[in-house]
Amino acid sequence: MGMFTKDIKSMEDLLMHGLQDMYYAEQQIIKSLPKMIEKATNRDLVAGLKGHLEETNKQVERLQNVFEKLGKESGGTHCPAIDGIIKEADEIAGEIEDKAVLDAALVAAAQAVEHYEICRYGTLIAWAEELGHDDIVRFLTTNLNEEKAANTKLNTVALRKGVNRKASSAA
């Protein structure tokens, strides 16, 4: 089912597509976070990414609960947006030799992912509420709140924990 194709005939179809999109996205994030953790050198960044990997696994479980509540099989649909964000992050990270600058790039890449997730979860919550699926809203809201908190932590790492400052004084 592609976004805005003939497969989407109703708001229910649109909600289901969005849920499948996020299920796929979360799976891709689980695959990419260990690579980011391996490349990161700032200890606060490493700790934050590790913590978010654990959260992301729980978010997938919550999405599985959402599918179950809706009486649907859990599964993802290809999400070119998250693939593009991850691909760009991989390409940029592969080009940066200075570790301080790499850490700043990793923070930016992680925030791009968080912003995408915040946008999508917010939309899914609005659609679920409109369709009367109050039983899934709390799962989606918990995921949204975790994504917002992860973004705030990344801001803290970049600004208060010195990642940006250290990167700005690199070579």
Describe the protein's architecture and organization.
Residues 46-73 form a coiled coil. Keywords: Coiled coil. This is Ferritin-like domain-containing protein. InterPro entries: DUF892_YciF-like, Ferritin-like, Ferritin-like_SF, YciF. 80% of the residues lie in helices and 0% in strands. The chain is mainly α. It has a single domain, classed as Up-down Bundle (Ferritin), CATH 1.20.1260.
Topology:
Blueprint: H1 11-39, H2 43-69, H3 80-95, H4 99-130, H5 134-159, H6 163-168
Helix pairs in contact: 1-2, 1-3, 1-4, 2-5, 3-4, 4-5
Q: What is the number of helices?
A: 6
Stated plainly, the CATH topology is called Ferritin
State the CATH superfamily name. Answer: Ferritin, core subunit, four-helix bundle
Strand content: under 5%
General form: elongated
Counting structural domains, the number is: 1
Total strand count, please?
0
> From the helix content, strand content and strand pairing, which structural class follows?
mainly alpha
Average of per-residue pLDDT values: 92
Q: Major sheet, described briefly?
A: none
Percent of residues in helices comes to: over 70%
Helix and strand succession? Answer: HHHHHH
Given as residue ranges, the uncertain stretches (5+ residues, pLDDT < 50) are none
C-alpha end-to-end distance: 48 Å
Q: What would you say the CATH architecture is?
A: Up-down Bundle
Q: What is the CATH class name?
A: Mainly Alpha
Radius of gyration: 17 Å
